[in-house]
Amino acid sequence: MKKRFTLYLLLFLLLSLPFSCNKEESRLAVAGSGTSTPKVRVVNEWVNGQAVVVAGSEEFEFMVAFGREMPDGEILEFTEIPTILPLIMEDQEGNRWDLFGYAASGPRRGERLPVVSSYMGYWFAIAAMYPGTEIFEGPEPSLAFTPPPPTPGWTVPEEEIFSGSGFDLIPALDFPKVERFREKDFWDNEYYLADSALLTGVKVGGKYRLYPHAILDFHEVVNDTIGDEHFAVAYHPLTGTATAWNRDLGGGLVSTFGVSGFLYNSNLIAFDRLTESLWSQMRQECITGAVAGNRKEVIPVLETTWGTWKRLLREPEVMSFETGFNYNYDSTPYCNYANSSQGSPYPVQYEDSRLPLKERVLGVVVDGAARAYRFSSFDY
Fold first, then answer.
1. Which residues contact 38 (CB under 8 A, 6 or more apart)?
2. What is the pTM of this model?
């Protein structure tokens, strides 16, 4: 009997050894391991007169953009570094910067690069919202289209607004439950997210929080708080765009946001629950209502895959699938839309054929002018 127990114990130890090794190897993939990959391409740009830097990696499916002119007037020039995520680039002063635009080392340690309006999205959506969009390393625009003027009381033409449903028929999530995920060990179940699943993440008050697109497909807007920071995260499945903004309307008023059911260029129009004013997600401004013309204080987001997020964060904090709604988050209400080559079934004011309609690009917007960046430009 004793020999049999010893044999079983030895067999268990032999079987568990590979799992222990794999767990240790997976730890070496996170920031701080000393590995010299991945490589990230860095481009110093001027977009509509503003100095910006765009960094991206096709292999790890992310692109981000920040301003280069610091508050002290210094314009930074960035270069690639053989690095480990989240560090991606350094400047002429010797500072090293991460994916959220924070200096991790150097004389500017702790400083943040200026925020610019930028987000991932389908090409057709960027081109329709900003006709004449430039394409980095791509063909020049041949625009023969003049957008109609805005309607009085609006910042956009009212006749271009499409009514899809009513207020709150798509339910936003208010202050959702979050969970902290750790490395899987021998006894754990598999992660509920595939490595290819997309998530949008923010870094607020020094904390990271991730929002799976599988949940955002059903809710589109999440009202959240980290510390003293009140913000909303919005993702619109039709345009593939994810953004975040401060929920402070000014004068000490902090609102939550909901889904209005209206669309402009097939893109989400949110409404704030204090004034019921309408806000365009991609334009990042109030387009009509009591605070028309007000622009949101943008919070940078990083959209990338779960596989990459696991490289970035050792124990990521993720919005829970326990939302209080009886939805099947393993499915999507948009069927095969994301994998289709067709554009949106809803109206857009302009269609630009220079790129495939559903190609995912990074749009950088400065004073109403946009430039689009493709993953193929960041392929090493």
1. 57, 59, 60, 83, 85, 380
2. 0.87
